[in-house]
Amino acid sequence: MELINTIKIIHKCSGCKRKMHFVNTGKFRVNANGSRVDVWLIYQCEKCKHSLNLTVYERVRPSRISGEEYRLFLENDETLAVKYGNDKEFLKRNRVEFGK
What is the pTM of this model? Predict the structure, then answer.
């Protein structure tokens, strides 16, 4: 899996059992639950490759997401992954620390 060059984050890794650096995979996960949709940006522990999903949208109606952006999520658009991966407000909302 190719990793994207964005802000590294620090989070407790469930595989390593301690705080580790995580990197952006450039992949999104989209999950439909009835009439609602969840979208996550997937990060990965640099050491053990455990994944961490950062919430982009949670339990929203698909009509609240622009058709173009929704299509880009489904296509794992690298440019969109970089945009979210460098958005400090997005990262803060997901309660992660910024890496060095």
Answer: 0.91
